[in-house]
Specification:
alpha+beta, binds zinc ion, 2 helices
Length: 120
């Protein structure tokens, strides 16, 4: 299992640097993930690191599926009936009407990017 959340970066000397990446960690290693794994020099706060990972999810990991559900469900934003949904990675699923089938809606529904545990 890997634990995901903001981690403080340590320098070559093993001391903390006061900067954060959003990272995955297990017993053996800690590694930045998402945009933080891509030349990001770290963030002043854990919250900024969370936000950076959220941007990554919203921009890279959302699948929009218009008219894809057999049974309509209520849009998570306006409660209209819809057969469309957005999926984030494999773990979040949001029914959204056509008007709300957008990255903005997904960002709003994700809210604060909490820590999570995953097999990947
Ligand atoms: Zn970052
Ligand atoms: Zn809606």
């Amino acid at each position: 299992m890997n634990y995901y959340g903001p981690r403080e970066l340590t320098g070559q000397d093993g001391r903390s640097t006061g900067r954060y990446h959003f990272a995955s960690a297990n017993d053996y290693r800690t590694a930045p993930v998402g945009y933080c794994a891509n030349g990001c020099s770290g963030h002043d706060t854990a919250e900024e690191a969370r936000e950076h990972f959220k941007q990554y999810l919203v921009n890279e990991k959302v699948d929009f599926r218009p008219d894809h559900m057999k049974r309509p469900e209520r849009c998570k934003i306006c409660a209209d009936w819809t057969r469309s949904y957005a999926r984030v990675e494999a773990w979040d699923f949001y029914p959204l009407c056509k008007d709300h089938l957008t990255k903005e809606s997904v960002a709003r529904l994700l809210g604060e990017m909490n820590d999570f545990v995953a097999a990947w």
